[in-house]
């Protein structure tokens, strides 16, 4: 009987060593594998709405007038080249987006690799490989979300600020490119601006008199921010005129029901990783990138609580940066850190397990929703009455349906109904409710849905019911007479039974 040595053969050892000596190549292979595995999947409801809007804008729709959307325009502008490339190549738009995100993750890692050369190659391979997982795999269900995009730009920016604090000379062109890329991410939500502010304060405390506010990356940040503000004023003034007043009236009520809601599994894992990394703060003098990542994680954690929504994807940059802080500490520091090294594999795997669990057991589309859309074919027009925007947008883009409304969902309805119950209701909210119903009637008359799907309590349940509010309007009641109710679970389905009159000549359904 022959004996096989358990020791790795020298040839294999040399191959492993050669691979470990090429940190960026290993990280890019990780990104390529994740991108290829993700390629056949779809996107979450927010990103589906974003991509749908990009197509409608190409067809001539006016964002913030023909389409009512609460987010500033940058995210939708980012989607337009994705939508055009998808149409030109006749490819699924989700697949084009996934490849595009994989490409910018690769650029982010390449820039970061230039700035962490103080870490020896084998350890740098571990750092960049984990960064690839944090940027590409942890946001699995939420590919293309703003939180993923901002993290993609913020990772090399944090590495750059760490290099500045260590007085490392960085080529001006590289610094400016990193600053511009990070600026596009930070501009997606004003909450994100906490992160560059905190990183700058951290740099100031480290450099004191040597600190200079104007550097290539800060100049790029300011230039991109100024250009974006000017573009809104020039091209999207409707955001300021139509949407900002709507946000002031109703968006404040669109929040987590309680503080407890903010501490779901994703938040607990992200905040737990942040807490573990913070406990080792005394070792951070030897770990500049770890320190910068910890500052960024704290900034994103603050943004998470300020937003007060508790949605899982809001935790993506907290978890990603907290994990990076921990890995960077282990590879940068010469301290023993034995307990952390033993616990790190399990702790750092938790976000990946959660991402896999979310993919295997998605909340949307629910069984009731799949039943509600049963029988619809690509190109059929569908209308939704629901406060939960994930209901229509977990199936509309994916199913290739035409969407009949200018609203992605009626998230403002709870605020409108609560306003009615006050002793002295706000007239602006009262008028907003009437306007929404009137506009919905006009939308459905212009683009008659084959099916209208309404979120309602099941028979016998007591909870929010949107339909009675719409039925107060004579125009909507008359329109619904052309439909017959066919089923009711948590969703009531109305099927077109009597053709609607010809659309009025004044329909403003440009591109929709």
Question: How helix-rich are the residues, as a percent range?
Answer: 55-70%
The span between the termini is: 74 Å
Apparent shape: elongated
Give the low-confidence spans. 1-5
- % residues in beta strands: under 5%
Could you characterize the architecture of this molecule?
There is one protein chain. The N and C termini lie far apart (74 Å). This protein has a five-stranded mixed β-sheet with strand order 2-1-3-5-4. The chain has two domains: 336 residues, no CATH class; 130 residues, no CATH class. It is mainly alpha-helical and 512 residues long. It is built from 22 helices and five strands.
What topology emerges from the helices and strands here?
Elements: H1 10-20, H2 23-38, H3 45-58, H4 74-89, H5 93-115, H6 121-137, H7 146-165, H8 172-186, H9 194-207, H10 216-235, H11 237-250, H12 265-279, H13 288-307, H14 316-332, H15 338-360, H16 367-372, E1 381-385, H17 390-393, H18 396-399, E2 402-403, H19 413-420, H20 427-446, E3 451-455, H21 467-471, H22 474-480, E4 483-488, E5 491-496
Parallel strand pairs: 1-2, 1-3
Antiparallel strand pairs: 3-5, 4-5
Helix pairs in contact: 2-5, 2-6, 3-4, 4-5, 5-6, 5-7, 6-14, 7-8, 7-9, 7-13, 7-14, 8-10, 9-13, 10-11, 12-13, 12-14, 12-15, 13-14, 14-15, 19-20
């Amino acid at each position: 009987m022959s004996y096989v040595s358990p020791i790795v053969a020298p040839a294999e050892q040399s191959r492993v060593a050669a691979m470990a000596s090429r940190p960026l190549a290993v990280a890019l292979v990780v990104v390529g594998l994740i991108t290829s595995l993700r390629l056949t999947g779809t996107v979450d409801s927010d990103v589906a709405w974003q991509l749908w809007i990009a197509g409608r804008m190409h067809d001539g729709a006016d964002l913030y007038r023909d389409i009512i959307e609460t987010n500033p325009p940058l995210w939708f502008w980012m989607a337009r080249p994705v939508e055009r490339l998808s149409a030109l190549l006749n490819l699924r738009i989700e697949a084009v987006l996934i490849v595009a995100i994989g490409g910018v993750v690769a650029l982010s890692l390449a820039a970061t690799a230039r700035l962490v050369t103080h870490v020896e190659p084998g350890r740098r391979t571990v750092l960049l490989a984990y960064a690839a997982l944090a940027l590409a795999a942890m946001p699995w269900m939420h590919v293309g979300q703003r939180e993923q995009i901002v993290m993609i730009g913020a990772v090399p920016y944090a590495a750059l600020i760490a290099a500045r604090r260590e007085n490392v000379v960085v080529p001006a062109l590289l610094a400016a490119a990193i600053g511009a890329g990070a600026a596009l991410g930070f501009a997606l939500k004003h909450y994100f601006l906490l992160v560059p502010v905190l990183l700058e304060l951290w740099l100031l405390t480290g450099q004191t008199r040597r600190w200079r506010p104007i550097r290539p990356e800060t100049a790029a940040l300011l230039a991109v921010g100024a250009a974006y503000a000017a573009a809104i004023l020039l091209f999207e003034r409707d955001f300021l005129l139509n949407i900002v007043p709507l946000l002031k009236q109703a968006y404040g009520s669109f929040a987590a029901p309680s503080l407890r809601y903010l501490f779901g599994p994703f938040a607990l894992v992200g905040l737990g990783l942040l807490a573990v990394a913070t406990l080792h703060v005394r070792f951070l003098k030897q770990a500049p990138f770890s320190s910068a990542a910890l500052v960024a994680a704290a900034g994103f954690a603050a943004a998470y609580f300020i937003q007060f929504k508790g949605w899982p994807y809001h935790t993506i940059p907290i978890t990603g940066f907290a994990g990076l802080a921990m890995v960077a500490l282990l590879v940068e520091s010469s301290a023993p850190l034995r307990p952390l090294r033993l616990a790190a594999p399990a702790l750092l795997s938790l976000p990946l397990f959660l991402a896999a669990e979310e993919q295997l057991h998605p909340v949307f589309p629910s069984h009731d929703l799949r039943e509600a859309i049963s029988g619809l074919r690509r190109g059929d027009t569908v209308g939704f009455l629901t406060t939960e925007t994930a209901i229509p947008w977990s199936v509309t883009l994916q199913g290739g349906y035409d969407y009949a409304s200018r609203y992605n969902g009626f998230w403002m309805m709870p605020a409108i109904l609560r306003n009615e119950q006050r002793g002295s209701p706000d007239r602006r909210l009262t008028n907003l409710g009437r306007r929404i119903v009137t506009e919905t009637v006009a939308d459905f008359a212009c683009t008659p849905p084959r099916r209208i799907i309404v979120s309602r309590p099941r028979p016998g349940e007591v909870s929010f019911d949107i339909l009675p509010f719409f039925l107060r309007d004579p125009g909507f009641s008359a329109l619904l007479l052309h439909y017959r109710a066919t089923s009711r679970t948590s969703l009531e389905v109305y099927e077109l039974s009597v053709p609607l009159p010809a659309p009025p000549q004044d329909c403003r359904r440009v591109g929709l």
